[in-house]
Each structure stands twice: as structure tokens, then as C-alpha cells.
Amino acid sequence: MDILILAVVIAVVVIGALGGLIVGSRRKKQLPPPPPAAPDITAPPAEPHVGDEAETPREEPRRTVEEVDLPDGSTPVVVEEPPTEAPAIEIPEPTAGRLVRLRARLSRSQNVLGKGLLTLLSREHLDEDTWEEIEDTLLTSDIGVQPTQELVERLRERVKVLGTRTPAELRGLLREELVALVDPSMDRAVSTENETGGPGIVMVVGVNGTGKTTTTGKLARVLVADGNTVVLGAADTFRAAAADQLETWGERVGAHTVRGPEGGDPASVAFDAVKEGKEMAADVVLIDTAGRLHTKTGLMDELGKVKRVVEKHAPLDEVLLVLDATTGQNGLVQARVFAEVVNITGIVLTKLDGTAKGGIVVAVQRELGVPVKLIGLGEGADDLAPFEPDAFVDAIIGE
Description:
Elements: H1 2-29, H2 98-101, H3 103-121, H4 128-140, H5 145-162, H6 167-182, E1 200-205, H7 212-225, E2 230-235, H8 242-253, E3 256-258, H9 266-279, E4 284-289, H10 297-310, E5 318-324, H11 330-341, E6 346-350, H12 360-368, E7 372-376, E8 384-386, H13 389-397
Parallel strand pairs: 1-4, 1-5, 2-3, 2-4, 5-6, 6-7
Antiparallel strand pairs: 7-8
Helix pairs in contact: 3-4, 3-13, 4-5, 5-6, 6-13, 7-8, 9-10, 11-12
């Protein structure tokens, strides 16, 4: 019996030992890896606490309502704005003799005509071929067929009578004939005297691209330089920048500009400009119209409407047609159509400094029977000059 009990005890001990070994090995296999090191995390800014967690308020100096200066409501609060400086008013140079001062610029482009004629006339034998060359030279300068034939005939007669032909004699002869062709007897003053006693009314017309709005601004400088007060009417409402451009020209010489909404009625703007010119007792009202294509009947009819509306105040004193000298004979076509719609009284030739076609002066005067009154000789603000036949011819033939 004792042996049996001993065997049972040994068996229990052995089974317990084996069980412990198995459990220990399983625990070793299932142990998880050590946790990674915790990263350094910056704590977010503390949120304000409320209720029981709120901090005890600190004592700070405070002012009562009675201690604070408040507006009484009777005096309005005025916010001061920085003063706006008015643009400086320019004083244009006098127009008397301006063409003489600009003659060198004109002669650089025109002396091809003058020197060419003098060279041909100086030949020892003036045969028919030479006279044909003289005629071709005149035609290429856009003088026109009839004026060219007249000039050649007079030159042939005078050269035959003259006999000897020194350079000085030829130059004097050519100068006399060209001055006569340009016709110095024409009245070239821009009319600013209105019959009603109000301001003189000048309307500027022309096709797109001739520099019409710029010329209008320069003309304002010419009038101011001659002692006139000017009101500008920006009746070119179809081109977005036209009114701004004209107003800038006016501000430079202290001229008031009347303008309307973009795309508005040009006749209404012109009417208002004349009205304000009367109220301000201005000397001249200068109206810039929209650039017209002479081939568009509707646009030309509208130009006639502007003229009729303006004349409800007073008759126009001047209608100046702006022509680009570089267009040559095409400018004569434009001139004819404009003359049918409005009564052209004077011509302004622009871009005359960049062309050898100065003969257009003669051609356009013959075509319309009206004088060239102003010529543009550059991009400068004071490069618009009253036309002077003697100075112009001297620039053509050189010294």
C-alpha cells in the first residue's frame, strides 16, 4: 500500500513539472516587442478655462464711463484726406514764327524736292527729257497734275528769258514760283471771332488714324499761347480713350473739358460744350469729333447732325479738316467727301515732317479752295505750327 501511494505522488510531481515547462515556453514565444520610444510632442497652447476651472482674474487698472472722453454727437467726426495737388499749368511757347524755328526739321524731309529741282534746272542743256524729269519730280511730291503743268510752263518761260542760270538766280526763280503756287494771299488765321459775341466755335473733323484728337489737343495749346481761354468738347464718344486723351491735353494748359458717357450721343456733348463755353465766357470752344470713314454714309450723316446741333447755339466759325500728309492723293478723296457734309474752312496737315510729299499743300488747296492753316511737324506738344508760305518754301528748297 505504501508503495502505491509513493508511485502516485511521484507521478503527480512529474506531471506538474512537465506542465510548468510547457507553459513557460509558450509565454516566451508570445511576449510582444517592446513599445517604441514616445516622440517629443509640443503641447498645444492652453485653452481658456471656464467655470470651476477658470483662473482667478488678475487685478488690472480700469476706467469708468465717466472717465472716458466720448464724442458728444454735436460735432461730426471729420476724416482729413491728404491734399490733392493740382497739375501744373504749362505755358506754351508763342506761335508767331514757330514754323521758322521748326524749319530745319521740315527741310530734312522736303529737300529731296527742292534739291532735285535745282539740280535739274542747273544742267547746261535743258532739253525735253530734262523738263519731263522736272515734271516727274513735281508729280511725285503730290503737287497735282494741273499745278505741275502750270509751274513747268512758267519755269520754261523764265529760264529762257533769264539766259544765264547761276545757282543763286535759279534758287530765287524757283522760290518765287513755288511761293506763288502755294498762294500767300489766302487768310490762314484760325477764326475765333463769333458774330454773336460769344465764344468762337471750332470743330475738328477727319478720318481715323490722322492724329485728329492729338491735333485737337495741340491746337488748344496754340490758342492758349495766343492768349485765348479754351473749352474742349470731347464729342468722340466711340473711342474709349479719346475723351481721356483730350482731357489730359486740356489739363496741361488749364482748358476745361466737357465729356459724356462712352458711346453717348456726340451731338449732345458738342451742344453741352458750347453751352458751358458761353457760361464760362471762354474765348474759344474746340470740339473734337469722332474719326469718320469717308466711305461710311451713316457716320458722315451723323457728323452733319453734330454740326446742325451746335449751330442751334451759334454758327460755326471754323471747320478744320485734319489730313495725314503721307496719304498723298488719297487725302484729296477724303477732303472731297468731308466738304460735301460740312463746310470745310481750313486744313491741318499732320506728319509733314516724315514725308517728301509736301506738294499736297498745293493740291488740297486747289481741290477745296480753302487754305492750309496749320501743319504738324513732329510728336512734341508744340510741334503744331501756323502755316507760313515763305518759311515752308524756304524749307523745301533749302539754303
